[in-house]
Amino acid sequence: MKRILMGGFASLALVACKIESSEKNKVVVNYPVTKTVDSTDTYFGETVTDPYRWLEDDRSKETEAWVKAQNSTTAKYLSQIPYINSLKERLSKIWNYEKIGAPHQEGHYTYFSKNNGLQNQDVIYRTQNNKEAEVFLDPNTFSNDGTTSLDALTFSKDGSLLAYSISEGGSDWRKIIVMDTETKKTIEDTLIDVKFTQIAWYKNEGFYYSSYDKPLGSELSAKTDQHKVYYHKLGTSQKEDALIYGGNSAEKHRYIYANVTEDDRYLILTPRNSTSGNKLFIKDLLQKNSPFITVLNVADSDTNIIDNRGSQLFLVTNLNAPNKKIVSVDASNPTPEHWVDVIPETEFVLSASKGSGYFFANYMVDAISKVKQYNYEGQFIKEITLPGLGTAAGFSGKKDYPVLYYAFTNYNTPSNLYEFNPKTGETKLYWKPKIDFNSENYISSQVFYTSNDGTKIPMLITHKKGIKLNGKNPTMLYGYGGFNISLTPTFSITNAVWMEQGGIFAVPNLRGGGEYGKKWHDAGTKMQKQNVFNDFIAAAEYLIAKNYTSSNYLALRGGSNGGLLVGAVMTQRPDLAKVALPAVGVLDMLRYHTFTAGAGWAYDYGTAEDSKEMFNYLKSYSPVHNVKKGISYPATLITTGDHDDRVVPAHSFKFAAALQSKQTGTNPTLIRIETDAGHGAGTPVSKTIAQYADIFGFTLYNMGFKDLPFKPKK
Q: Would residue 304 count as lying in a domain?
């Protein structure tokens, strides 16, 4: 089956970095020597060595020297690739177009984001009564180098106040700043040490937020697993903020998020022990000192309140509905036995939004969007006619919004913004990018291939029209496969440049993701995690069998959990691909849960302390523990950020050290460590462009291209 989409991460002994050219684009690299230490852990009677444990000390002078030496080695290698600057120039040129975000009304103003092209961070503008827009908040002024970014901004109910959070150097730790929107002046002291939070205003009096106690160890890697919700009353100091929920050492709620309904009626709390499943409590804010009411006291489903109408609550849930549904219940008796279906579960996975007094059911049909509109009684209104096959996102706003906005994109079509009138059903193009890329010259095809156990897996393959299936096309196979996250077709400027060079971009929807609901997710978790790797391997084998590419022209890429995917597959099947690109990866599966909030990932992975069986399973695929001497691994460029406090850089450091120490052959193993950068969000445009030029240059060079396949546009 094929569907066509058309579009218009003691001392350090160092040796000098010596790089020698050899035949056929091969380069011999003499790596910095990484010392080993006598560090071990014992699991169920088995001793496991950890010779690079010292690299976990992310702020030591030794680690700092190691990072500098590795970056120097990588930079010297990359400097020999003749066309990296050309790639950087082309990335800069194609990136340099105006980008606009969907407008939203807050008080007397309409706000929207805009980037003039190469600004490191998007700028927030506002307008009133169709007057010329003015700059409201410019994150490019937060720091000289663009490494301080705007994370979230939330307006009070009447729009007169704004609370916004910032990230410094890519860290997940945030600061919250409160502003008077009329004067654009900061009105009180900045809140600090905030992490994994939403900002939920209650009237104009204050807001709820979440954080952990400041860790005693390294702020970058120390464990944080007691999330708490606080209420900040305007005009008071942060040390006076009231603890609303959390901090009970008997039960570790690693993530607790707070929301307030649009009418200020209910406070909603969703405590979680992991990234999957939550409890659910509500509090009636109209009644002083009212208790929390339990909706769900067991975290065995993903259930959230999407809206209310007086005391009638509307919930999106996968409890007894793996593909999700919308139910309603009265707040006086909100437990599941009283739930009534509003939009029942279907065979397709539901992602729901609300706006203008309607619900919008965005279904994934083999990872492609289909959107239906319903009223609050559950009556079907209409199916939204989308511009094509791809991903639609948006359809959200307050009840009184007369129009809503949505973005539409796919792998070869840049995101366009549409205005939608929910009452009339009228859709019109609101904004189209003027980008130096002709999507009409490219095509996406959806295919279904068979994994090793017979499971059918969808994959989207995007490339220039008219390519020859001769096994020599440079191909980027990108995957994730975890945490119920779905990979849906989305345009990327970087992928556009890859495809301009004749490259194929292929994305399989692996098990562990959310494309087919809770069962699909669970099929790639814990003792079934190998399914994800098998699915990825089968995708590569499909592309090779169908002559799209061959092992000599295949690159494996993924970030975070996708970095684990690449690390596991390249150690299990080192012959599969020519290049491996694990980014900010989870690569030490025996210790991942000992850093920051990593213990919250146990739903997907399990931990080495769970059981002997689970320990053995994790050890069997943990990339750091499966690098073997005498194996020729693919040419590898590991990428991470020195301020990544989600997947700490020690994962990447240890994997790089193991590969450099053990592999044979001439394929390079390099690590590129971005400074003042974290897990990815908020990375300045300038850093992103430089990183992708290096990644694509490294990839093509190690596939044997002495020159770029196609001369970039000037």
A: no
